[in-house]
């Protein structure tokens, strides 16, 4: 067998388990916050569920991105499973409501979410969803003189008031406190500091980890430690993630001014408070883990990602990549199948997991198995 060896390990080559009693945690509900790197994170959870033969929640409608309607999940919203079967992994769009998950998942389910700096998130949302279509009069007012995001940020309070909500159970389009709304915020509490604090403390109480997109690799290493997963478990398609570009194509050199930033900070005060709190919380957790060791693991993880990225970039790869043991991981092998799995998107995982659950519970294949997985 042809092996490619990677020996760039910054510390001891002999793996020393840090917690011999640590047991991998299989029951996770990931709240997929819009435009926060959540699709990349979702793929990690779906691959983990598939590779460990866990029950992954799927929508009743094949490859739908949502399960439930608003903050309500009912049996008819999800793929039919045998009576009494609980989900191990939930990772589709829904609006967070803990009581939903208490009906469908084990009591020891751990909750995970991801946030992004509110300004970065709203820029991405305008770019991806073309939010000007939900803001009557914006196209006529802005014309070619400025970008829609600039028009919005000059007077967010005005545009928030005229925003047309999409007619969907789980609205993708949103401009104000969008992350908080995905996490269950149901009313405007911007001017009530006590209510904002109570909301944030509730999320802190319920969630094992709130990841931060700007520190994605740090967040994944923390996830690995909190769930007792392996380094292999948190691998992701770093080429696809790093290549995402939300820059606007415009000759207008003044994109976002400080005044615009201040306007949005006032308009979406809950999101800004939420992000600031959990950004600080992540770094507090890193300090508790021992920052030197933790940051060493992050650097090691990033080295591994680059090696895997380069290996999997070879089409029809027939070799195998052996990743040596380190203080943070056992030895493992990257092969063609893993490369293929790392490349899959949500809809491809939906089809593969659906087939696997059909065979597990009903001894049949759905006939919709993905035919275009492809390889790096």
Structural domain tally: 1
> What strand line-up does the widest sheet have?
3-2-4-5
CATH class: Alpha Beta
* CATH fold label: Rossmann fold
Distance between the termini: 20 Å
Low-confidence stretches: 1-19, 243-254, 369-376
* Main sheet properties: 4 strands, parallel
Percent of sequence in beta strands: 5-15%
Oligomer: single chain
SS field, number of helical segments: 15
Instruction: Determine the structural class based on helices, strands and strand pairing.
Output: alpha/beta
Q: In angstroms, what is the radius of gyration?
A: 22 Å
Strand element count? 7
Indicate the CATH architecture: 3-Layer(aba) Sandwich
Distinctive features:
Galactose-3-O-sulfotransferase 4-like, 376 residues, disordered N terminus, alpha/beta, transmembrane, 15 helices, golgi apparatus, 3-stranded mixed beta sheet, disordered C terminus, single chain, 4-stranded parallel beta sheet, membrane, 8% strand, Rossmann fold
SSE layout and pairings?
Elements: E1 3-6, E2 28-31, H1 38-51, E3 89-90, H2 98-104, E4 110-115, H3 118-129, H4 138-142, H5 148-154, H6 156-162, H7 178-182, H8 193-206, E5 207-212, H9 216-227, H10 238-243, H11 258-267, H12 269-289, H13 291-312, E6 320-323, E7 332-334, H14 336-343, H15 346-362
Parallel strand pairs: 1-6, 2-3, 2-4, 4-5
Antiparallel strand pairs: 6-7
GO molecular function: galactosylceramide sulfotransferase activity
Organism: Branchiostoma belcheri
Protein name: Galactose-3-O-sulfotransferase 4-like
């Amino acid at each position: 067998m042809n092996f490619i060896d990677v020996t760039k390990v910054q510390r001891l080559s002999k793996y020393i388990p840090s917690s011999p009693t640590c047991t991998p945690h299989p029951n996770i509900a990931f709240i997929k916050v819009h435009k926060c790197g959540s699709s990349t994170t979702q793929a990690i959870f779906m691959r983990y569920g598939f590779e460990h033969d866990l029950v992954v929640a799927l929508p009743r409608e094949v490859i739908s991105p949502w399960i439930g309607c608003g903050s309500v999940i009912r049996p008819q919203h999800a793929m039919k499973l045998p009576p009494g079967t609980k989900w191990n992994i939930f990772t589709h769009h829904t609006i967070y409501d803990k009581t939903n998950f208490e009906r469908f998942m084990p009591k020891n389910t751990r909750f995970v979410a991801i946030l992004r700096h509110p300004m970065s998130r709203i820029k991405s949302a305008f770019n991806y969803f073309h939010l000007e279509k939900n803001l009557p009069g914006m196209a006529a007012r802005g014309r070619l003189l400025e970008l829609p995001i600039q028009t919005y940020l000059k007077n967010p309070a005005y545009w928030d008031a005229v925003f047309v909500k999409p007619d969907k159970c789980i609205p993708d389009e949103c401009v104000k406190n969008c992350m908080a709304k995905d996490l269950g915020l149901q009313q405007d509490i911007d001017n009530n500091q006590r209510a904002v604090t109570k909301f944030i403390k509730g999320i802190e109480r319920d969630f094992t980890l709130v990841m931060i997109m700007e520190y994605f690799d740090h967040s994944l290493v923390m996830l690995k430690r909190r769930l007792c997963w392996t380094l292999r478990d948190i691998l992701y398609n770093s080429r696809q993630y790093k290549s995402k570009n939300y820059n606007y194509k415009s000759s207008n050199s003044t994109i976002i001014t400080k005044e615009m930033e201040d306007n949005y900070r006032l308009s979406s005060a809950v999101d800004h408070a939420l992000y600031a709190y959990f950004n600080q919380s992540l770094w507090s957790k890193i300090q508790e883990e021992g920052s030197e060791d933790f940051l060493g693991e992050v650097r090691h993880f990033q080295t591994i990602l680059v090696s895997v990225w380069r290996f999997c970039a070879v089409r029809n790869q027939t070799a195998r990549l052996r990743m040596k043991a380190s203080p943070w991981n056992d030895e493992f092998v990257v092969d063609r199948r893993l490369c293929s799995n790392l490349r899959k998107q949500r809809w491809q995982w939906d089809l593969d997991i659906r087939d696997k659950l059909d065979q597990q519970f009903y001894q049949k294949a759905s006939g919709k198995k993905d035919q275009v997985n492809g390889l790096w």
